[in-house]
Design goal:
Layout lengths: L1 H35 L11 H14 L5 H8 L3 H13 L20 H12 L8 H10 L7 H11 L24 E4 L2 E4 L2
Antiparallel strand pairs: 1-2
Helix pairs in contact: 1-2, 6-7
Length: about 190
């Protein structure tokens, strides 16, 4: 009678473990459904609260499932998960970011570089330089290393207006006045043509 009781206890323990695993999977899927608006498509989540919800669900499921399996269930790449995790713990601003293409590019400009581009584009001391020349100058002085087309794209997307102050004095609006042929009036004096 004793071995049957032990088998039942083992079976109950096994079923309880399976129940915990299934509950963890359900929590993960619910968090993903809430975050993606009931869609498991791989769209980017710019909202920090949605990312934090998914991270909490993954953390609660980690004691019962391997992390690789959890990430496969969520359709989340390990690199993105670790980036979210490190940003959530390291940065005070949290997980919120701007929405963009899900694929990050190593040559993408940092916010500091974008701010430097903006500063140089809007600076009055560089207004005489065309945008391509300004981009090469920024590379030469080691400020921002980006192509002229990237500068032009930033200017166009952000709507930055370059300072265009007139360098020369305004042209006179009144033309030459003469009362007879070969006569030119300059500041009230009459000059006869030769």
């Amino acid at each position: 009678m004793e071995p049957d009781r032990q088998e039942l206890i083992d079976c109950i323990a096994r079923l309880e473990r399976q129940e915990r695993i299934l509950a963890a999977v359900v929590r993960i899927l619910l968090a993903v459904l809430r975050a993606f608006g009931f869609s498991l498509a791989g769209e980017r989540l710019p909202e920090g609260a949605a990312k934090a919800g998914i991270l909490r669900a993954i953390t609660s499921a980690k004691p019962f499932l391997p992390l690789a399996l959890i990430l496969r269930i969520v359709h989340l790449e390990p690199g993105r998960y670790h980036a979210w995790n490190s940003r959530a713990s390291a940065l005070a601003c949290g997980l919120k970011d701007r929405s963009s293409c899900p694929r990050t590019s190593p040559s993408q400009l940092t916010p500091t570089e974008v701010a430097a581009v903006k500063e140089m584009v809007l600076a009055p001391e560089y207004r005489h330089m065309p945008l391509g020349t300004l981009a090469r100058y920024a590379q030469r002085i080691g400020r921002v290393c980006a192509s002229a087309s990237t500068w032009a794209k930033l200017v166009r997307e952000r709507g930055w207006r370059r300072p265009r102050q007139r360098v020369h004095p305004p042209k006179p609006t009144v033309g030459v006045r003469a009362s007879q042929p070969n006569q030119t009036i300059v500041r009230g004096r009459s000059l006869r043509g030769r």
